[in-house]
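Limitations

Structures in this collection are predictions, not experimental determinations, and the ligand pose is part of the prediction. Treat each record accordingly. The example that follows, with dihydroflavine-adenine dinucleotide as the small molecule, is included so readers can see exactly what is and is not provided: the inputs are given verbatim, and the output is the predicted complex.
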Amino acid sequence: MLRSAFLWLSNRDSVFKFTKRNKLANKIASRFVAGETVASAIEVTRSLNARGITASLDLLGESVHTKEEAVRARDGVLEALDAIASTEVAGNVSVKLTQLGLDIDESLCAANMHTILNRAKELDIFVRIDMESSVYVERTLRLFTNDLQPAFGDLVGVVMQSYLRRSGQDVSDLVERGARIRLCKGAYAEPSSVAFDSMREIRASFVVLLEHLLERGNYPAIATHDPRLIDHAIQYVERNAISPERFEFQMLYGVRRDLQTRLRERDFNVRVYIPFGTNWYPYLMRRLAERPANVGFMVASILKESVSRR
Ligand code: FDA
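Predicted complex:
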């Protein structure tokens, strides 16, 4: 119930304008977001690198409505790529296609991705395409498989969500193509016609996809903080003599730092996803949807501020 409410709120721009002014919301956001500038993301990356952990920088923003916004987002990603290269930190970038114009015009989005990937190629930095809600999956995979992967190979990868019923087939097809895949559970509100409802089914699906990727995938990324799934992955690679160099664990900035360190201490590759930028509201709402413990506190504070302003 709370999860659905927060996922619903993640699409409400009007609430964002209000939340952005709230001090506690800003404080909670700062737990999950490195800061508003690329310099803040680089600083966080440096401190992670010092602990042996790599990064993926995510310029926050999604679902832009104009060509100008999409071009601005593209330039922001180029700036992040340049900053990674010039500071020599160990990091790559993650992007969202709706931020680069997928909803406006697919060819604009493709052109923006080509500009990003050409720069990434010059700098030898990997680019991950995040997966958004299920209405974008078909278009994202079409652009990836018909255009970006053939043109840029291992420099670009996609994300598979274990809550989607279609992911078994998609993972098989992508593995056949040698695609670089990040596996996660999925963070959006989806109808049960397309996604599993129960955590039991989502975990079971994750396990099947995980084993397939560990066995046959091209340097898969296992993106979860779920200790049961992480333990399963570790047992599976140990049982099947799969070397730790063949995959990486990924976690979100601000979530389970203890687990990140423990995995690194066991010599597993660990990458942390670092969101930065001013457009943090939908991202924050999705993180709150996953963690109701923070929610009551934040809602109470927002209500208090709104009442005292009247
Ligand atoms: P789960 O939600 O069951 O959490 C397991 C444990 O982790 C919790 O018990 C808690 O201890 C901790 N935890 C999890 N979330 C927390 C939070 N917000 N605050 C505090 N503690 C928390 N999704 C998507 O749809 N498309 C994408 O492209 C990506 N990309 C992506 C990259 C990376 C690196 C990660 C780690 C995740 C994503 N996701 C994503 C999000 C993913 O789909 C999922 O919503 C979250 O990872 C939460 O699911 P978990 O598997 O971590 O388990």
